[in-house]
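Deliverable D5.2: sample structural annotation.
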Amino acid sequence: MSALRARYLGGCSAINGTLIIRGAKADYDRIATLGNPGWSWEDILPYFKASETFHPAEWHQSDLTVHGTSGPLHTAPHDPVPISEKVLDSFIDSGFEYKPD
């Protein structure tokens, strides 16, 4: 199993393919409870949806209720790679909750 590494500005983040990612619902809700109105998951979700056009993949368990259909950023799940699947399996085996989308 190969694990690509990069030796240039940005390092591995320059080749990992994660171009867009959101925080967890609980994190946004926590930000709101700390005195930041308008930052709860329910408050910010419409902005996430407005910013993207999501292209689901047949193999991915996508929750289409949290994705947009007409925004300027075209997003899609990437194809899984063996090392990512092994890391994910180890997290699940360690008791972490898995949310596919």
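Annotation notes: Residues 61 and 99 are 9 Å apart (CA to CA). The longest helix spans residues 82-93.
The annotation will be released with the project's public dataset once the embargo ends.
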